[in-house]
Design a protein that fits this description.
Elements lengths: L2 H6 L3 E6 L23 E3 L5 H15 L10 E16 L5 E16 L5 E14 L5 H38 L15 E2 L3 E6 L1
Parallel strand pairs: 2-3, 5-6, 5-7
Antiparallel strand pairs: 1-7, 3-4, 4-5
Helix pairs in contact: 2-3
Length: 199
């Protein structure tokens, strides 16, 4: 399979979701807003050079598709970590395929109160071929995988946060939450999610 074909091949996403008893609805329910409405979330800078910048751009576009000014009620802080592992090792000990994972720990904070209201961890994994005859082709495949992981990681974070924000908006229309309410105590720990992306 040629490099060009691999790079253009549609990603196959397999979602493995482990859910903890936090009392929330399934996070992969259809929660995306198809009308292009914006969510009041401010994305903080994400360390990680080009990959961090790409994830921040993706999150900003997902939270506010119209790019119109909006008063943020929440701030989102994301810390990312990459891990590269050999996936296929040939008989001559040459590595012909790699797994690249991107783990994102995120926290949503109420800007007015300064309180952390939700947090969680998302992990996406992609793989790419190492081209023996071309270091540049291998480099290009790695960078392409990084960008796809940034996009899928941002989508995962957005969908999972929407589950929380939807319930937070519903709580606002109800009487003030008692002290034993999830919105009145510790930040909600959202379920961990693993996404596997293959070429």
């Amino acid at each position: 399979m040629s490099l060009q074909h691999r790079l253009k091949h549609f990603a196959v996403v397999t979602i493995a979701l482990s859910t903890f008893g936090c009392g929330f609805e399934p996070i992969y329910k259809a929660t995306d807003r198809s009308d292009g409405a914006a969510f009041p979330v401010q994305i903080e800078n994400i360390e990680g050079s080009r990959l961090g910048q790409e994830m921040r751009i993706q999150l900003e576009n997902l939270m506010n598709p119209t790019s119109k000014p909006i008063t943020a009620r929440y701030s989102l802080n994301v810390k990312i970590k990459q891990d590269l592992q050999p996936l296929v090792i040939e008989r001559d000990r040459r590595i012909s395929r790699y797994n690249l994972s991107l783990t994102s720990k995120y926290a949503l904070k109420d800007i007015e109160t300064g309180k952390k209201v939700a947090e969680g961890t998302s992990k996406v994994v992609g793989s790419y071929d190492a081209v023996e005859a071309s270091d540049f082709s291998t480099y290009a495949a790695e960078k392409d995988t990084e960008m796809r992981l940034a996009r899928e990681g941002a989508k995962d974070i957005k969908v999972r946060l929407m589950s929380f924000l939807r319930q937070a908006e519903e709580q606002k229309s109800k009487p003030v939450a008692p002290q034993n309410s999830p919105l009145a105590e510790d930040p909600v720990e959202l379920p961990k999610t693993n996404l596997e992306i293959q070429q």
